[in-house]
Amino acid sequence: MGLKHQSYKTSSSSKLFSIRSSTILSITLFLASFVYFFVPVQHFPEPLFWVDQEARFTGDLRDAKFPWNKLCFGPASENLKLAVFSKTWPVLAAPGGMERHAFTLYTALAARGHEIHVFTVPSDRRPHQDIHQGSLHVHFAANDHGSVNCSLAFDIFNKENMAGAFDYVHTESVSLPYWRAKMVPKVAVTWHGIWYEIMHSKLFQELLSNPNGQLPGPMTELQEAMPRLVDEIRFFTSYTQHICISNSAGEILINIYHLPPKNVHVILNGVDDTKFVHYPEAGAQFRQNHGVSANASLVMGVAGRLVRDKGHPLLYEAFSAISKHHPGVFLLVAGSGPWGKRYAELGPNVKVLGPLEPSELSEFYNALDVFVNPTLRPQGLDLTLMEAMHCGKPVLAPNFPSITGSVVLNEGFGYTFSPNVESFTEALEAVIRDGPSVLQRKGMACKKHAISMFTAAKMASAYESCLLQLAGRLVE
């Protein structure tokens, strides 16, 4: 277009060059238009770009506005002596998410040369000997009911501190109560759930269980949530530094709880990527072992405690609806709880597996086309999402800010839905329409993203650098 309005004269060769250039430009634009409108566009996961950009971050790391997992840290310049307060320590075959997180993180930090002292109780609530394995020391301090005896734990902590001062203290949520945290000059707390998020959880459960407001529901708990939120905001200042496991929780602590931005840090959870791996052959064998038809058109799976607040009423109703129109779709249910019996009522296309051994979880994920997490609990981040992604599986999860802001960043990683049956059913229909081929491509994108962000090594390196920074020991 610009060539038509040129007023100066050109030679014939110049005209020929202009004609050829415009012709080439026109052809290029035509082909580009063809590609744009008729060829499917690949959506590459954004974090693959973000990691490189923010790995070049300079300045005070406490000013970082993104998860520390995105940064690439070298070997630590110094080793720390860390005190850790944790609710429980796994001693059972099938530990819960919090226990898996604690074991993975502190084992990894000890392997990196840091002296770690964990003050906690066994997950089975029975007497056990303390654990001393290399640089990892687990001190059990239980009361008569098997819960943490805060006074006993603090006594052991003081003895260890006298033997050699701790460089920093870290607590998983309120395992170190705030009134004791005031006594510790250098303490960081990792929040796996805050009351602002729990309020939303109670809201979703109320709307789901009592949509018309005619039946008694958890409304009392919902009404009591606001005073508890106010109390929480007030005592959060008792902790010096705050670590959040999702971007959205970090924003809440700054914008709603009014904590100083320099005191709030985001470190996403990580899982053992040597155990959770893409292994299709193991998945095929798992299907065969559990009676999944070789003619199954699509296999979904859910794992965890089979209780109401994990969203199983949603999945039960939604899968009941789609199974009538899609007889080739199977659902594998791993876990224990009251909803196990309900799922068994749905017929032969639903396999209730019961609780799985840790060694079986990777095989379970590999047997799926898509992993489903219907939770009604927006607090924290479920490790099962990350485990499934490491196994090369896309995920289907609620559109909670913690999930969409830290895990399922775009549709290239899976599917999201609003926490109601109608939206969930529509999402399941979308999964079925896409089919195994599209799901496999999304699963590979999930795997790349998980390796870049959700590994035990990434998490441990981020905690290591964060605590070194807070202790004034990080050499930049």
UniProtKB/TrEMBL annotation:
Segments traversing the membrane: 21-39
SUPFAM superfamilies reported for this sequence: UDP-Glycosyltransferase/glycogen phosphorylase
Keyword RNA-binding: no
InterPro entries assigned: Glyco_trans_1, Glyco_trans_4-like_N
Superkingdom of this protein's organism: Eukaryota
Glycosyltransferase subfamily 4-like N-terminal domain boundaries: 95-274
Name of this protein: Glycosyltransferase subfamily 4-like N-terminal domain-containing protein
Organism: Nyssa sinensis
Lineage: Eukaryota, Viridiplantae, Streptophyta, Embryophyta, Tracheophyta
